[in-house]
Amino acid sequence: MKKTIYFKPSFPPLGSFLSVVATISGIYLLIDAAEDSYYIVGGLLCFVGSFVLTAFEGLIIDASEKKVLKYTTTFGIKKGKWIEVGGYKAISLLSNKVSHNRSVHGVNPTKFTDMLYKVVLLNSNHSKKFVIFESLNLENATAKLTEIQTLLELDKVRYNPPVAKKRK
Q1: Domains of the chain, residue spans
Q2: Which spans are transmembrane here (predicted)?
C-alpha cells in the first residue's frame, strides 16, 4: 500500500507569484516580439517561470514493502530514490533552532529565531539518521510522526546518539 505523506511546492509563495509574472511576461514577449532578441528573452522567462511553477517535493511511503521515496518533481517528472527502511528500527522527533536576520537596507536589523522540527528514522544505535519530514509547526510534525510510525510500524524513541571515545 503506497501512501503520499506530503506533496508541496518547492518554492515559497512569493517565488510562485514571481514565476507566474515571469511566465506571463515571457508569453507576451513571445507573441508580441518586435525583434529577434525578444524571442530569446521571452523563451527564457517562460522556461524559468514554468520550472518554478512545476517544482514540487513530496514523500511516498510503501508500507507493504517498507520503502520510502523522498522525491522532487519538475515538469511532471519525478526524481528520487526508493530507500529501504529495514535498516532503520526507530523514529524520533528532533528540534533545531533556526535564526535569520532581516533588515531594510542594513538599518535596524531584526533577528528572528524559529524552531524547526524534524521527523527522522534512526538505526538501532542512533548513529545513522534519515530526515523524512521537516516543519516549523510542532503539532504538524507530531501528527506526521504518528502517521509515519503507524505506517512503517517503528518504535518511537528519544534520540540518543553514541558518544565517541576520546583518543589518548
Answers
A1: 1-84, 86-168
A2: 12-31, 37-61
